[in-house]
Amino acid sequence: MRHRNEKKTLDRPRSQRVLLRRNMAVSLIEAEHMVTTLAKAKWLRPFFEHLVTIAKKQNLASHRQLISLLNSKKAARKLMSEIAIRFANRSGGFVRIIKAGVRQGDGARMAVIELLDRSVKDTAKSKVKKPKSDQGLKKEKGAKHEKDK
To answer: For the packed helices 38-55 and 14-31, what is the interaxial angle rounded to 10 degrees?
Structure first.
């Protein structure tokens, strides 16, 4: 039992969690939105907001700290020069998480995590494919058999 243990493990060892969080943060910086599971999105948000807070200081020490946390000079540079400037007047809440249904393969709850200054129209509804109905699948299968005959 995990009594009084508050960290999220995501069923991974520590080293994999650190790398996963780093790679997800770099992807979010580069694309400014991403589709992932709801648990991973909620787990990434505090780390990313901490990165933006560090970047808002705009000094050499914070730039070096971002490089060490992200292990990517390109992502650290974009975070300092573009993203932190956009959120200069904002004290927190730099990303939003929008629920996007469930993944068809395993039923995992999906979400879109994106920077707040993106438009709401570019959200989960356009990014996640809706599953086909059973009737559509039966028609497609039937059409394939008719062509074979």
So the answer is: 70
Q: Amino acid identity, residue 121?
A: K
Helix (H) or strand (E) holding 112: strand 109-115
| DSSP for residue 68 | H
| Amino acid 144: pLDDT | 53
> Tens of pLDDT along 97-108?
999 999 999 999
Q: Are 75 and 30 in contact (CB under 8 A)?
A: yes
pLDDT at 140 over 80: no
Q: Give dist(CA 149, CA 146) in Å, integer.
A: 5
Query: Which domains can be identified in the chain, with CATH numbers?
Result: 14-148 (3.90.1030.10)
